[in-house]
């Protein structure tokens, strides 16, 4: 994803969203973490700096300060290190270069040293830049940013081309389904025009946005039905559930992710059934 991919007509939207992909591809990060820079006139913000990679952080500094912008804050969408590990370093480097304080925000400040709880809105030269929306599920502290014009920076709540991992006890399938339902309602109401995920490619069509969110909900409901059916058939151990639901070929990180998702599904079923 180049830094041209998310540029918009400046006559249509005053806030520019620019992306950079971190060099950390893998089974859990797909093609790498997508970091974003929001620019509104002479002000800017960095979302999800990603890993503590010097070259990647340097590119974010250039984007955030490139035309003399004042960087107002660094925000992480959730606690996982592939989104947050570089946040403190980036903040210090930005402050050193600008000679000005830069705020650091995380919904769970204990997960990012020096961070504070983010505001519900980011404001810049042109007024409202983005709403910060709580979307728990992938993690308890997950947030998304609804940028002016309907562009939703999703973190790991919605990925481009893959389903997200939900690892209890921090992750909750029950909360995740509620978050997806809220985002779907916002999309149907015309408030979300595009999705810009923490990993994978963006979704640029409002019609596609609705389809992606509905597919994510349907995928989880299908998994719930599969687990219910397997347990009714006498499949009770996690190892057997993995083979029954995902097949026998999963290994390494993918198998670990499958076990987390199944634990989240079992917890959800238990909560729904009241036992």
From TrEMBL:
Stretches assigned to the Metallo-beta-lactamase domain: 32-199
Disordered: annotated span: 1-31
A Pfam family that the UniProt record links to this protein: Lactamase_B
InterPro entries hit by this protein: Metallo-B-lactamas (IPR001279), RibonucZ/Hydroxyglut_hydro (IPR036866), Sec-metab_biosynth-thioest (IPR050662), WH-like_DNA-bd_sf (IPR036388)
Basic and acidic residues bias locations: 1-11
Name of the molecule in the record: MBL fold metallo-hydrolase
Organism the protein comes from: Brachybacterium hainanense
């Amino acid at each position: 994803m180049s830094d041209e991919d998310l540029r918009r007509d400046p006559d249509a939207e005053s806030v520019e969203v620019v992306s950079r992909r971190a060099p950390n591809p893998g089974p859990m990060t797909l093609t790498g973490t997508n970091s974003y820079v929001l620019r509104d006139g002479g002000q800017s913000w960095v979302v999800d700096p990603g890993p503590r990679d010097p070259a990647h952080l340097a590119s974010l500094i250039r984007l955030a300060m490139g035309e003399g912008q004042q960087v107002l804050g660094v925000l992480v969408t959730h606690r996982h290190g592939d989104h947050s590990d570089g946040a403190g370093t980036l903040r210090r480097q930005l402050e050193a270069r600008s000679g000005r304080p830069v705020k650091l925000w995380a919904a769970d400040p204990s997960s990012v040293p020096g961070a504070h709880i983010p505001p519900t809105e980011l404001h810049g030269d042109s007024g409202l830049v983005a709403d910060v929306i709580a979307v728990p599920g992938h993690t308890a502290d997950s947030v998304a940013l609804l940028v002016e014009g309907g562009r939703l920076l999703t973190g790991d709540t919605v990925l481009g081309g893959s389903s997200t991992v939900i690892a209890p006890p921090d992750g909750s399938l029950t909360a995740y389904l509620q978050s997806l339902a809220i985002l779907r309602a916002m999309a149907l109401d015309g408030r979300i025009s595009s999705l810009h995920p923490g990993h994978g490619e963006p979704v640029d069509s409002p019609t596609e946005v609705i389809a992606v969110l509905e597919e994510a909900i349907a995928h989880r409901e299908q998994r719930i039905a599969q687990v219910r059916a397997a347990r009714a058939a006498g499949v009770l151990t996690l190892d057997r559930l993995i083979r029954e639901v995902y097949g026998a070929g999963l290994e390494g990180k993918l198998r670990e992710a499958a076990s987390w998702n199944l634990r989240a599904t079992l917890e959800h079923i238990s909560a729904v059934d009241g036992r």
